[in-house]
Amino acid sequence: MCTNNTWNASEFDNDTTLNTDRQSEPELFTIYIQFTAILTLVVVTVTGNLLLLAIVFRSPQLRSTVSNALIVNLAVADSLIGVFVLPAFAATVLLGGPPAETVAPGLCSTSKTTAVAATTVTCSTQPAIIASRDPCR
Description:
The protein is 79% helix and 3% strand. It has 137 residues and is an all-alpha fold. α2 (24-58) packs antiparallel against α4 and α4 (66-95) runs antiparallel to α5.
């Protein structure tokens, strides 16, 4: 492999040609694993936030506090991420790039707009929750 501190490139040529032939299977497997993980995250995100919204709206005691109203605000923002942003990301992973406008018109712009809006809501709501729960008023 190495003689007199110089590399012998011919020893590595056979390995690289074999690796390029086998590279497509693990790559495809990785894409499917990522796609499945994102879809699982979509289901968990939307289901969990919808359950939280249902619990808060069914209980008058939970609707009466400011902290819970802010938590509902976070749940709505997270649900929007789960409905609009994560599926677009899953499509991007599966297709190897952003979906074409002919396949899903407006998906990229809707996804980006929703991501920015929901992130802004989340970043604005979290300090408000902390302030509403602060015992040092």
